[in-house]
Amino acid sequence: MGALASLLRHRRILYATVLQGLKKRTSGNALGVLWLLLYPLLFLSMYSLVFVQILQVRIPGLGTMDYILVVFSGLVPFLAFAEAFGTGTTSVVASRDLLMNTLFPIELVVAREVLIGHTTMGMGMLLLWGAVLHYHGSHWTHLLVPVIYLLQIMMVLGLVWITATLTVFFRDLQQAIPILVLFLMMVSPIGYTANMVPEGLKALLLLNPLAWLMELYRACLMRGEVPLEQLGLFALFACVLFTLGGALILRLKPLFADHA
User: Fold this and answer.
1) What's this model's pTM, rounded to 2 decimal places?
2) pLDDT tens digits for range 130-154
3) 159 near 85, Cβ under 8 Å?
4) Residue 6 backbone zone (phi > 0: left; psi -120 to 50: alpha; other: beta)
5) On the CB side of 57, how many CA atoms lie within 13 Å of its CA?
6) H helix or E strand, kind and range, residue 84
7) Are 184 and 75 in contact (CB under 8 A)?
8) How far apart are CA 142 and CA 167, in angstroms?
9) Annotated domain spans of the chain
């Protein structure tokens, strides 16, 4: 757990750099921090236009607003993942000047990008939560949402530690990231649910951790359910990936300077 120890040891510096990164993203913009709210809403509007108005997708037993909430509950975690995955994977290569910095270890550069991505999408999660409270009221299972969000951050951070490390040695991975993100957007149940997937293709969902994540959010937020088995498996997966990613970047970071 050396990576976790590094995060805790440098938590104040990490916190300060995350704040700095957030300010950099919003400073100079006419709308400033409002973009943190507009970004997920604009994506939701596009998805709603395509799936609700053009394709006229409907889920039996759900009204139009409930279907929009289903889309939003899949879209927000995916946007957080996509932003963190895209910027985090290239963060080591883009930060050559920090490779020999002992005050701010390179593994924290990756963590900074992952946390920034999930902080901006945290605003979208608050919007989703507020909409669910308005249309469905409160339920004790909503208290599990922060736990799932934390597990999502752990999973993504572990994954991005791995991809950022591999990118140092195999630069071609940078070109594959946008394609991979687009592929994951298509095969993740954002505009549809797992029940709408044909039996022959459900293996894709079983192999896609983002699908597990979206179903957990929907179960806790909209159905008032706690799928304990799914939650336990996802927590185990997130912890294992976090541990493996942290071990890999700490093991190979002495070689980064020779390949940067």
Assistant:
1) 0.89
2) 888 888 888 899 999 999 999 999 9
3) yes
4) alpha
5) 18
6) helix 64-89
7) no
8) 37
9) 2-259
